[in-house]
Amino acid sequence: MTISSICLSRRLVRTGLATAAGLSLALGSLGPALAQTSAPPERLTPAQREKIFPERKALTLKLQKERSQIQQKSERCVSGASNQQELRSCRKDERKANQKLRAQYRDEMRKIYERNGIEAPVGGPGKGRRGGKRQATPGS
Question: Which helix (H) or strand (E) segment is 75 a member of?
């Protein structure tokens, strides 16, 4: 056996172990998800969607303009940055502005739902479809 083949075989063993560990973690986290008894929130009916469409469209246009302004401000900041600390500060400011905008969107959508007699979905940061924080399972 050559040195390169030994390195390759070690790498394959490590990769195989990492893959096996990842697979076992994925399968282990599947159990609690299957055991949930709460149903997902109801989706809007076509009539409800139609009812809130004009307000939702106006809100979306308003927030697109604000998002564009945040992007332009960030671009000016990054262009003027002269060191890593200033660049980091620009990115932090942009992130905070976008978080504030998302919170504003959620609040405005709740108000639209309330005005139209629709129960607003429950949730917030970290509770969406994309994951968020997971609860610790026993044994982990």
Answer: helix 46-80
Structure pTM? 0.56
**Which structure tokens are listed for 109?**
């959508």
Rounded to the nearest integer, the mean pLDDT of the chain is 76
CB-facing half-sphere around the CA of 113: CA atoms within 13 A: 14
Q: Choose the weakest-confidence range: 38-52, 77-91, 111-125.
A: 38-52
* Consecutive H or E run containing 29: helix 3-35
Residue 58 has, within 13 A of its CA and on its CB side, a CA count of 5
Query: Can you tell me whether residue 84 is helix, strand or coil?
Result: helix
Q: What is the largest CA-CA distance in the chain?
A: 75
CA angle 112–70–108, rounded 5-degree value: 10
**Mean of pLDDT values over 122-134:** 54
The CA distance from 57 to 37, in Å, is 35
